[in-house]
Amino acid sequence: MGKRITNLAKTSASKFVNARDVKTVIQAQEELAAFLSEEMTSNEAIKELGLDVVTVSILAVSPSLETKRALESATREQILQQQDDAIYKRRNAAIEQERIIKENELNTEIKVAEKEHESNMLKQKNALEEVELESKVTKEKADIRAYANEVMLKAMESVDKDVLLSILLSGMDSKTLIAKAFNSLAENTDKIGNLNISPDLLETLTSVGVTTRN
Q: According to the model, what pLDDT value does residue 179 have?
């Protein structure tokens, strides 16, 4: 009778174990006891023997030696895999962090280069404008001098040649010579036409030297 009850218990236990994986069964000691208690209590064969199941206790759930070794091996593999995954994640995190740092450094270098380029372009623009301004001023001065020479020549043309020669030979200074030339110019306006005399032109005329011969 005892063997029959044992076989019934084994059958119920196998039913419980087959529905679950090994790891779950090993950790389901109390759940297995409750399942066996219910199965044994409702079993008709046990009732026919005139027995009542009061309680079922499971002292331990232990795998076979081969299963234990397999579980230990699987556990080791799982632990190693978890370690590898952790190392992989740390490496990826380090690589990503390094990438972000390098990207930020590159962006900073690009911004600095752009600012330097803008600064150089501004300097070149200012230098070009300065050169253009100097060129313009130089041209204006040259135009004034050229016009002054033209005015001087026109004034001299209106002076009688003999009078002009006498003035030059007398060693008259340039300002007096220019004054006399303009006086003659005023007397012959009908022959000259329009002539614009600006303050800059007068200053240029008075600074023009006249070479005399002794």
A: 60
Its sign, for the CA torsion 44, 47, 51, 52, is positive
> Residue 69: pLDDT band by 50, 70, 90 thresholds?
confident
Backbone angles phi, psi at 161, to 5 degrees: -60, -40
In angstroms, the CA 149 to CA 134 distance is 22
- Domain ranges across the chain: 2-62, 140-207
- For tokens 């006086």, name the residue: 183
Cα distances (Å, whole numbers) of residue 30 to 37, 61, 63, 86: 11, 10, 16, 34
pLDDT tens for 152-189 read 666 666 656 665 555 555 555 555 656 655 565 555 55
Enter the pTM of the model: 0.36
Distance CA 143, CA 201 (A): 10
128 vs 39 pLDDT, higher one: 128
| Helix ranges, the chain (H) | 2-18, 22-26, 29-41, 44-48, 65-157, 161-169, 174-187, 189-192, 199-207
Is residue 197 within 8 Å of residue 154, measured between CB atoms?
no
Query: How far apart, in Å, are the Cα atoms of 145 and each of 46, 71, 116, 169, 198?
Result: 138, 109, 43, 25, 12
